[in-house]
Design brief:
single chain, mainly alpha, elongated
């Protein structure tokens, strides 16, 4: 249970960091780090799907249940 929660928090943190990077660099018109932030956020979404929600669909318990 705890490992699923940790994996979920890691994925959420990746997405949040990606969006923060997108916001900070897009306001400065620095497009390469902006695109890299988009990529990092997309990797975070992929991580969440692959490591958390796909295992839930395969028959394990929901990742954030107590």
């Amino acid at each position: 249970m705890a490992s699923r929660r940790v994996r979920a928090w890691i994925g959420v943190a990746m997405v949040v960091v990606g969006f923060v990077q997108i916001g900070l660099y897009a306001t400065q018109h620095d497009w390469i780090p902006t695109v890299l932030g988009m990529f990092y956020a997309a990797v975070g979404v992929g991580y969440l799907w692959a490591e958390v929600y796909r295992t839930e669909r395969d028959g394990e318990a929901a990742p954030l249940e107590t």
